[in-house]
Amino acid sequence: xxKATPNPxxxxxxTHNSKExxxxxxxALDYYLKPKPDKPDxxxxxxxxxxxxxxxxxxxxxxxxxxxxxxxxxxxxxxLAFDLEGPRRHIALGIxxxxxxxxxxxNRALDNIDPR
Length: 116
Prior knowledge:
Elements: H1 18-33, H2 59-83, H3 87-113
Helix pairs in contact: 2-3
């Protein structure tokens, strides 16, 4: 009987290593289907910088934390001002006023972002 197509090659396990073939196929698929992430546009922070803010934090969270920090600083300076007398007390109260005004600005910015 005559066949129109040739016989398939023998499937001899010694002619190729299926494990190596699978690894090569995985590498090829990963190269095309799993692209490497791009390098970040922003440079790494300076190693001497101890504190940093994580990239991608939304503005509302930043302003809420700012407002809480200012409230804490206001409480600390207020307690300190009542222990002082004379010009040092006036300086501490001036700092407290600046903190209070900054807190008002932060709260207004929060209200503009997410009106209550």
